Amino acid sequence: MEKYELKIGYFYPELLNLYGDHGNILVLNKRCRWRGVSVVVSEYTIGSRLPEKGSNSYPDIVFMGGGPDRSQLAIVEDLSKNKEWFLNYALSGGVGLFICGAYQLLGNFYEDADGNKLLGVGLFDIETRHFGKEKPRSIGNILVETENKLTFSRNTLVGFENHGGRTYLGKNGKPLGKVLKGFGNNGDDKTEGARFNNCFGTYLHGPLLPKNPHFADMLIYKALENKYFAGVVFSNLNDSLEWRAHENQVNKLRNT
Amino acid sequence: MDIVFYLAILVGKIAGFLSRISKRGAGVTWAGYLALSIYPNLIEALSEKLTKGVIIVSGTNGKTTTTHILKGILKSGSIRVISNDTGANLFNGLAGTLLAASSLTGDLKGDLGVFEVDEGALPRVLTVIKPSFIVLLNLSRDQLDRYGEIDLTLSRWEKSIGQLKSYPVFIVNRDDKYLKRLDQFFTDRDIVFYNFDLLTPVGYTSPIEGRFNQLNTNAAVLTAQLLGFSDEGIKKGLKSILPAFGRGEHFDINNRHLTILLSKNPVSMDVNLTFLESTLSNAKGSGRFAVLFILNDNIPDGRDISWIYDADFEKHHHWLLRLPLFVSGERALDLALRLKYADISLPHSESRLSTDLRSVLTAAISFLPKGGSLYILSTYSGMLEARKLLLGKGVG
Question: Does the active-site annotation cover A214?
Fold first, then answer.
């Protein structure tokens, strides 16, 4: 029986780890192992040399989490040095998950309350603005509806958002989903997150994956498919606890 | 003092009385809020009357315990202390506390104020209270949805310290990495450092178990020393102390021993689990222990529960696995899920895992044999609820 293995590239773990987002790595790791897929997590930080496409250490899944403003500033320069790497990764169908601050910096730019612009990677066609004291932070539990067939089972996502920046999709930008409850990208257009090929950006903390096992499985499946092409055997896990937790939040949010 | 001041006191006291008789939880904060809306300078006006001044204790973890220990030492030295009890450590709570300790004519029933102040509220509190001592315990992630980040809290503290017109003595935990960043702001201030080892050789044992509480004790002892307490006086005071409200507080129900340990962020969770592990290894035979986790996401708990993924359950996997576990609170399912991902599986029966705290608590107590011990690791509002159930009456 063929042994599957996935490599996860975890970017800036010591800088972007504010909201328990590395819990997403934990979930990806376990959900692979529980299926007999082995996982290697490699960490990349400022100054790291990124693996070349085709090399043994090229990741199958890329993950970057949220962090405080100070951390975001620190990584901007490093990200711009690696801009091509990320764009190539996304264009070739690489699976990626970018949360909050990472999501913002993978967009076109981030403009702070004083008008300073931080240039992003441009992977997502989005721009983010922080309005300072003019507009309140978007904080709270959030319920999102993704388009049909993005994930295997239901199309709801539950999480917790906490961001000052407001994100707007450009004409080529596709949202991750529609906001059913909460603020989402900017509190106005009811979009949440963004997607480009197999890369996904979102404001959902929680962290995202524990209560959205279908989303975790979608990422894992796409990564396995990319690597092993046809014939990937993907077993179901016992997610009764995950779904209870998911539904609990869905019901609470639908009823408020 | 003008008539508005007395009116504010009167209204506040009536509000406090009403909320106490209607048992709607700690009316201190509400009473404070009302009084402040009538007389905004209330805190300043009342705290100035404290002849021996004010000591403020702030930081992420250990405020209540440190304040409690310090109070115990001070009271044993016959000093009349006014302090805020649990949950009244924000601006309105402080106002309510001073109000409760005041007569209708604004005379305070105490000489020295010892107040724990929430780390987010500290800057605002320092604009109306001129403390003689400020104890800074530590900073770590707590209630992310309220503060956003430690950097923000630190920068607000820096600004606030920079603007202080009075000159308090700072008592600071030298072992805390975030507090180190404040060093430059202390250059022209009086500052005294404490750490874990500082006083232990002298033999001031913490009255409450746990390494972390030794740190809290050291902070309290150092403060008492600076106030002029003798070695003897301090030791006498320490002997008189029992665990604080919800922090290692003990209950005996039907011959089972229950202990509540406030576990509201990664640090406190780790401290409590570590303490539990050592308690278990010191005990003979583990068949008589059980643990109940309570996770809520109400405002005092922090609405963002993702901190449970920053809490290191994996480290405690090897012994947690062997214990009967119970999980409750409004976000019980999230905690159970967290444990699942730490390879600590839980029977999913209603008695073990349910948002119905009363039924899980009852099940946990009856599960244990007589003489058994239940440790309750809970976020703040879960702790209040558990206390209420255990004490069998309304919150008073």
Answer: no
